[in-house]
Amino acid sequence: MQQLHGVGPQLAARLEKLGILCVQDLLFLLPLRYEDRTRIVPIGSLRPGQRAVVEGEIQLTEVAYRGRRNLLCKINDGTGGLTLRFFHFSRAQQNGLARGKRIRCFGEARPGTGGLQMVHPEYRFPTDTDLAADDTLTPVYPATEGLQQGRLRNLTRQALGLVSADGLDEWLPDRILKAMGFPGLLEAVTLLHRPPADTDLKAIQEGRHPAQRRMAFEELLAQHLSLRKLRSKTRDEPAVALVDTAGAVPDFIGSLPYALTGAQQRVIAELLEDLAEEQPMMRLVQGDVGSGKTVVAAAATVCAAACNRQTAIMAPTELLAEQHAENFRQWFEPLGQEVALLTGKITGKARQQLLQRIADGRARIVVGTHALFQESVTFDHLALVVVDEQHRFGVHQRLALREKGDREGRCPHQLIMTATPIPRTLAMTAYADLDVSVIDELPPGRKPVTTVAMPESRRHELVTSIRDACLAGQQAYWVCPLIEESEVLDYEAAEKTANMLAEALPELSLGLVHGRMKSKDKHRVMQAFKSGEIDLLIATTVVEVGVDVPNASMMIIENAERMGLAQLHQLRGRVGRGGEQSSCLLLYKPPLSDLAKQRLAVLRETNDGFKVAQADLDLRGPGELLGIKQTGLMQMRIADLMRDADLLPEVHKTATFMLKERPDAVAGLIERWIGEAGRFGKV
Ligand code: ADP
Ligand code: MG
Q1: CA end-to-end span of the chain
Q2: Which domains does the chain have, with CATH numbers?
């Protein structure tokens, strides 16, 4: 980086924080939008809110004292007049703005007292030869602390200069560029950083410009290739074959109080086949909420335990880890197998003892949160890692557990479970390193949840239905609005709702859970809800993942129009788990946009998570599919899995071609977009 003018250690460090380590990274930091400074706009045609370059003659400069002291400068270009206003100014600046001088400025025109004004415009005094304005559109980069736009513009200008002299490696095969109508890399980055005045900005805004599509394609390709490389690398590592010679798995299945569904049986068979190999299993089990994934994971765990090996089970939240620990204890303690629960809240001596039992192998099954990743956690002979609700964990975290293995350096088998249905093309990209099994059948006797959308003004009607349902022995969830990304605001909204409901429903017992509670308190409330002591649970979206209370039959969701379809589907999956007919009520704030109407209609029309996911992809909208973005399942600089989904089939084909024919370009692409080729593998 230091080859660029003006980049000292301090700026380099700031850039590094943004992930910008080299000139190329800088070129991949694309502008958010552009400003048109290519034309000088007649003052008379300026509209309020317009950001524009104007040029005129200074008619008057004076200091005004109304309110705050400020400097006013009135200019006119013959078509109209404009006031420039400065709240911070020096004497020299004031003197420079002399009457009769020509001035060119850029800023936003805003309505003022005597016509339009610009507050703190950028300005300069054009010379006679300086007639033209800029010849390309001006990029506006994502705002970053301590990095001004001017700086970034200067750096990208220098970077473009360097690469147009030295060139940029073109890794995409010519054939693809032609077939897709993509520009070359240098042409694409030059256009995106300095678009000519006649560029189709609307296409850029919508992500449809060929220059952008080319960059997105390349990034998706690099991501996909790196996962495929990772997959073949993992395949080469040794693992312990886990074979259920004693028939422990059939015994376990026979001991369950219900019969497994056909889909559960099929997936268990697939798992057992993988486990019996001397190379690590890398399998994703997808199954809609309530499809019974936990027991499938337990069957694999039974196999590992029967071979005297340890299993680690990772859950995304403490709530879920506790719930799993409870289930696994019920299944495994009768078999004489010790189940340990490791979360962040177990500390001090208790933690030391627990770590010791994990390290010497006495704890055969270890359930935990991300605390399991910590270095202080070592296993005696870990042979199976189960990761629940994968979308909450990134690829890196998942791989960190792989390192733990056993003392002979063998790699554990990996089973990833997700309730997030994901359309096939996306799965091939996001999970290119995994085999996929699908549990496509719900346990028998489940009645589809009835879903209704209603304006929030009809809340009070719900209060009556909740009272009736709860007095008849049912339970209900009330999920409070999602407010920005702030736990504090979420919590305040939830507390307000809880107070309102407590007043309206004095005959019921209410509980409140939210993300800011101590986990001990959260646990207590959840336990009370599970045992039926609490009738109505008011919650923030912490209940989204995995919570299993079969007696709950009503789910009320506020501000449903602001949530992603996948998330709403997850929340809805909390009910309809028992024998009772369940309902999900989506409260919204009118008026609904057409898009919002269509999205809510999808939920009313189907209970099938795959259909919901496909519709989410087709419609798009707030939140996004699988929460891929929020959770960084795939962190990308330019591509957007949803926006660019139509590129994926071609990405996959190109990847297959390049792995075979262009290994040099594969390495180059991964290096360019993901960093040193092994970064994923090392963590
Ligand atoms: P998820 O796939 O969402 O993780 P769970 O594993 O939590 O689902 O299972 C949901 C509920 O269904 C649990 O109460 C579980 O005991 C029950 N269940 C699982 N499999 C079956 C089955 N084959 N028949 C009946 N109930 C089942
Ligand atoms: Mg689950």
Answers
A1: 24
A2: 39-133 (2.40.50.140), 248-439 (3.40.50.300), 450-606 (3.40.50.300)
